[in-house]
Amino acid sequence: MSTTESSESSESTATPGREPDEQQSRAVAEAAREQDWRRPSFAKGLYLGQFDLSLIHPHPRPDPERRERGERFIADLEAFLRTVDGTAIERDARIPDEVFQGLAEVGAFGMKIPVEYGGLGLGQYWYNHALAMIGTVNASIGALLSAHQSVGVPEPLVLAGTEEQRRRFLPRCAAGAISAFLLTEPEVGSDPARLRATAVPTEDGTEYVLDGTKLWTTNGVVAELLVVMARVPASDGHRGGISAFVVEADSPGITVHRRNAFMGLRGLENGLTSLRGVRVPAENLIGREGEGLKIALTTLNAGRLAIPAICAGAAKWSLKIAREWSAARVQWGRPVGEHAAIAHKVAFIAATTFALDAVVDLSGTLADEGRKDIRIEAALAKLWASEMAWKIADELVQIRGGRGFETAASLAARGERAVAAEQLLRDLRINRIFEGSTEIMQLLIAREAVDAHLTAAGDLIDPHLDVTAKLKAAASASGFYARWLPKLVAGKGYLPTSYDEFGALARHLRYVERTSRKLARSTFTGMARWQGDLEHRQGFLARVVDVGAELFAVSAACARAAMIAADAPEDGRAATQLADVFAEQSRHRTEALLHDLWHNTDAEDERLASRVLDGAYAWLETGILDPSEGTGPWITEEIPADAMADVHRRVVRRD
């Protein structure tokens, strides 16, 4: 977790043809981080024991200037979506061309694109509401639009593009020129230091020549424009490093070899794409050379919020189905929802859906305001929402019993209501992997959560520094901790009248305040105990992050309930009840996580896993057959011989 490497030095340590070691991979990731905290962050404060409720309460409101546009668009979108047959997308594993065309006509490809560039300029709040609705018709459509606007061409250009790039590309994107983001490679997942795709400048400096293979290119099969990440070799006049380019998808040398298929999101247009000698104008470079990963991470600060939005929509649908089914299905003389075993599941779904809604709306309005640093909030929202939505979908399948395991098509063929519960479970599963897996998100958030410690004491725990440098670092760190540690002893959480304006929810906010300080003390203890080895204590770090996620969700739920009570008193009691039960459920999870920080089987698990990998227990695998043996290598950079035909196609007609 060292913060000392510069962007240029870290890029130069990881070059194509040479496998980067752990330190080099870490240096590349560290260089891409946004280093400074220029704006306040509510979630960052939670990890430092600084519970500043004023940052989210009173709850921020959506921009009133966007409300009319947002409500009008949502109405138009709903009318169009009612004509879309989501079951056909699941059956045929393809979004029909007329759906692409209809989305373009209502403006769905330009939801977040500013009005001056031909978009709707709705901002994150209304974009989130649109995705929540879209995902309930078919999750593949939500993934299509999310990949196009959250990580595709529009967001990077809005954040880091030149004015000329914005005027050239954004109107096309708003009108339906679908975009895709090409970073992942067969050897590159969460470790960008391994990236092999290259962008070699021509001698006259007017173009770059791109070569490489990109895997899991969502929208790649139907994209008109691409954002491609490739490594520019350092040379005279070229800073070099991983860089981002806007590339025309029909450029000579680009081939989409295969459309990939998955357990869920069957309508996803996701491909295997190669670039061979693709010439890209120099003016298509986004930002500067070597800034590609930083642009990607900055894009994801808000772009990640698309996934929580889709998760919130899925939770709302799950709640509706669970409520209606649990009241209609009678067993042992009563509706199944009145039996405690099912009632507990229904309560979990209802309370968690309220919190998901709260987290999404709070994060979205904070993003639109632009006055707070939301990199941790967005990451927590993605992490927590994807995990909780998966649990909700799993509970819905359980509530539905055998019908939950049966497909909607099979149910309909038997004359019953076509409830696609098993499809929901399959479609939601990818969200725990998309845009940073849960495990990677925990490490990413942990890095940001301990940033203040690394700034104060990073050199102190750096094993590469000499004694003199460490003594100097100790003096600096002692000043920070002398000011910070006393603040963790006591706070408003111990005052019985604190947060009384929240009524019945005040006790939950007092708990959040106390637990925030306890979490900060635990993090400090971990730093003191393990020092530089803390980054390898991934079980500890994951639990620290998960505690913060629960505290964030409770805070969001309470702030939302207070807003509802103020705006619509007739709904205030119901909102308070939902927030109250959610906070109680969350407290049980939080207490378990806090206990497990220091009482766990992490060391035993890691020793056992090491022996497993060494083959010590291979005898345990006897008595089975593995049909995958002999079908191919675990990872290949090669394009299969039978996959050379280009499956790329254009799906939106534009005048």
TrEMBL record:
Q: Where is the Acyl-CoA dehydrogenase/oxidase N-terminal domain?
A: 88-176
Report the superkingdom from the record.
Bacteria
User: Which cofactor is essential here?
Assistant: FAD
Pfam families assigned to the protein according to its UniProt record, in alphabetical order: Acyl-CoA_dh_1, Acyl-CoA_dh_M, Acyl-CoA_dh_N
Enumerate the InterPro entries for this protein. Answer: Acyl-CoA_Oxase/DH_mid-dom, Acyl-CoA_Oxase/DH_mid-dom_sf, AcylCo_DH-like_C, AcylCo_DH/oxidase_C, AcylCoA_DH/ox_N, AcylCoA_DH/ox_N_sf, AcylCoA_DH/oxidase_NM_dom_sf
**Which protein family is named in the record?**
Belongs to the acyl-CoA dehydrogenase family.
Acyl-CoA oxidase/dehydrogenase middle domain spans which residues? 180-273
**Record protein name field:** Acyl-CoA dehydrogenase FadE10
What Gene3D superfamilies does its record include?
Answer: Acyl-CoA dehydrogenase/oxidase, N-terminal domain, Butyryl-CoA Dehydrogenase, subunit A, domain 2, Butyryl-CoA Dehydrogenase, subunit A, domain 3
Domain named Acyl-CoA dehydrogenase/oxidase C-terminal is located at 290-448
Compositionally biased, Low complexity: which spans? 1-13
Region (Disordered): which ranges? 1-36
Per UniProt, which keywords does this protein have?
FAD, Flavoprotein, Oxidoreductase
Tell me which SUPFAM superfamilies the record gives: Acyl-CoA dehydrogenase C-terminal domain-like (SSF47203), Acyl-CoA dehydrogenase NM domain-like (SSF56645)
